[in-house]
Specification:
The chain is mostly helical. The chain has a domain at 68-215. The chain contains 7 helices and no strands. It has helices at residues 5-17, 71-97, 105-127, 134-137, 142-177, 189-192, 194-215. It is flat, with a radius of gyration of 35 Å.
């Protein structure tokens, strides 16, 4: 006796419709398996995964974050480096293709290198990346390291504050006596005026670093992070 194919197909459909929905346990946000083959919209799980990835970062709003105004030093560094590269490249081209040279540009190159050192020093102070003896700076407790950092920032602020004040007199003497540079013959104060400016900038950065360090909190009793257990 042969069975009717259409009748068998209906029985299989009724049997599958009576079965309970089996949910996919591979991921919490995945839809049930039968929903993948259905044309109707399926509800999605709104639960978010739990774990350390969703925890708040403890240092996200730290008062020790570097100031946004550091872009000034960064852009000045880029400009000075580009000017030095262009002057050097032009010197090479002129000496290679002609018999003359840009020897007079050496004075400008020396000035730009000094300015670059002061600008980079200001950025290093703001980022607290100056050279230090790690045995004293990082050894001992966190409170000791914080106090040493504050002492270093105060010393830098005092030193460059004195340089900024005393160099103003040097600039005034260059201006009043009409001194000129030995290479190009331009007024000497065109170069010396930047010493008090950059020294004052380093002083301001050191004061800002001192304030940020004084406002920072130290927690010596915080346990070290451990690996999560499965």
């Amino acid at each position: 006796m042969h069975s009717n194919p259409s009748h068998n197909r209906k029985r299989r459909l009724q049997r599958s419709a009576s079965r309970p929905l089996v949910h996919n346990t591979a991921g919490q946000g995945d839809p049930p398996i039968p929903c993948l083959f259905s044309s109707s919209p399926c509800p999605m799980s709104s639960s978010s995964p739990q774990g350390p990835a969703t925890d708040a970062l403890p240092g996200a709003a730290s008062p020790e974050a570097e100031p946004r105004s550091l872009r000034l030093e960064d852009w000045l560094t880029v400009i000075v480096m580009a000017a030095l590269a262009l002057i050097t490249f032009a010197n090479v081209l002129v000496r290679y293709f002609t018999n003359s040279s840009f020897a007079w540009t050496e004075e400008i190159s020396v000035f730009l290198m000094i300015a670059l050192a002061l600008i980079a020093g200001s950025a290093a102070v703001a980022r607290d990346q100056h050279i230090r003896i790690e045995y004293f700076a990082e050894g001992g407790s966190a409170v000791r390291s914080k106090r040493l950092s504050m002492l270093g920032a105060a010393t830098v602020a005092l030193l460059f504050g004195v340089i900024a004040v005393l160099s103003v007199r040097v600039v005034w003497d260059d201006y009043s006596f009409g001194e000129t540079s030995p290479g190009i013959g331009v007024p000497q104060w065109w170069y010396s005026i930047w010493l008090p400016v950059f020294s004052a900038l380093i002083t301001a950065r050191a004061i800002g670093l001192f304030i940020r360090r004084s406002r920072s909190t130290v927690n010596d009793a915080a346990p070290a992070p451990q690996d999560a257990q499965p």
